[in-house]
Write a structure and sequence with these properties.
With about 325 residues, the protein is an alpha/beta fold. The chain is built from 12 helices and 10 strands. The strands form 2 sheets. Strands 1-2-10-7-8-9 form a 6-stranded mixed beta sheet, sandwiched between helices. Strand 4 (about 95-105), helix 4 (about 115-120) and strand 5 (about 125-130) form a beta-alpha-beta unit. Helix 10 packs across helix 11. It is globular.
Length: about 325
């Protein structure tokens, strides 16, 4: 029997933190990965590979899609998107058609990478959009054009990364699970939805820290907008630690690869490279720089497991 929510907390003894008076905990959302209880008559036990924290975002949206009688889902993501894989698996197991609109029309002429091949194996129909269109996919006209081109007009739309008002309410439960457990709770950010919900669920006096895995500095405004839509106003105390993206999404340079491998060996924890490695690297660097006061308890949310470990296939992120 695999762990079910709330996911476990694991204390890590690491001199890089302890010598600065910092206690490090790992919130092991990566362990919630089989036979997830969806707590609704609409969804039975669902073996959703590989959700990590993705179930917190997907479950409310799947409930809404099924309640509305939708037979198909459409969503958006990059070539290494965990969210695309989770949505494809959910669609297969629930008998829903899935369409993935993938950033980069140049990819259409190339062999599918392991991540997109997994989506296709789970029945997801892939449509490759130009990067210019993808950048503006939230705009109504562009979205309508993309949905039409993908043959997905009328499908239930789940936004990129699964981040919408429903998802934020699901992620707020993560914050509630951590009330009283840590002073600062840190999570890696793609679209910002997990951080936005997490911050809303924490107790007064706790702070959420987001580590963006993409370059660009666009997340602050997006998180505020997400919280406005979900909760009607900004919620919780949160900040972003920029400049730990290591060159961009799915970029894993040699130094980050070595750090992740070492952390995994030291502590027996599988370190996913696209999100979790960048989070742990950032926390190590910030601790060394004195960003956290001595006596701080720091919790890092482990949002997923390495692709190679979970599937026996190649690592989704490449060193490039």
């Amino acid at each position: 029997m695999q762990p079910r929510p709330p996911s476990p907390l694991q204390e890590i003894r690491d001199d890089r933190f302890e010598r600065h008076g910092i206690r490090l905990l790992l919130k092991r959302d990566d362990l919630i990965h089989t036979t997830i209880p969806w707590d609704t008559d609409l969804l039975g036990p669902l073996d959703l590979y590989p959700p990590g924290n993705k179930w917190r975002k997907l479950a409310p949206n799947l409930r809404a899609a099924l309640a509305a009688g939708c037979g198909s889902l459409v969503t958006f993501g990059g070539a290494y998107s965990n969210h695309l894989r989770a949505t494809a698996a959910a669609g297969r197991l629930l008998g829903l058609e899935t369409v993935g609109i993938v950033r980069g029309d140049e990819l259409a002429a190339r062999p599918l990478n392991d991540s997109l091949a997994r989506c296709a194996a789970d029945g997801m129909r892939l449509h490759f959009a130009s990067r210019a269109d993808y950048r503006h996919q939230a705009e109504p006209r562009t979205r309508a054009r993309l949905l039409d081109a993908a043959g997905a007009t009328g499908a239930y739309v789940i936004p990129e990364g699964g981040s919408n008002a429903l998802a934020l309410r699901g992620c707020a439960e993560l914050g509630r699970e951590l009330r009283g457990a840590a002073d600062v709770v840190a999570v890696a950010c793609g679209t910002g939805g997990t951080l936005a919900g997490l911050a809303a669920g924490l107790a007064p006096g706790q702070r959420a820290l987001g580590v963006p895995v993409l370059a660009g500095g666009f997340l602050e405004a997006e998180i505020r907008s997400l919280q406005e839509r979900a909760f009607g106003a900004p919620a919780g105390d949160w900040t972003l630690a920029e400049d730990f993206h290591h060159g961009g999404y799915a970029r894993v340079p040699a130094a980050l690869e070595a750090f992740a491998a070492d952390f995994g060996t030291r502590h027996g924890v599988p370190v996913e490279r696209v999100y979790v490695a960048k989070l742990l690297w950032a926390l190590t660097e910030l601790t060394a720089a004195g960003a956290f006061a001595p006596g701080t308890t720091l919790a890092a949310v482990v949002t997923g497991r390495p692709w190679a470990e979970a599937t026996g296939e190649g690592q989704a992120a490449s060193s490039r």
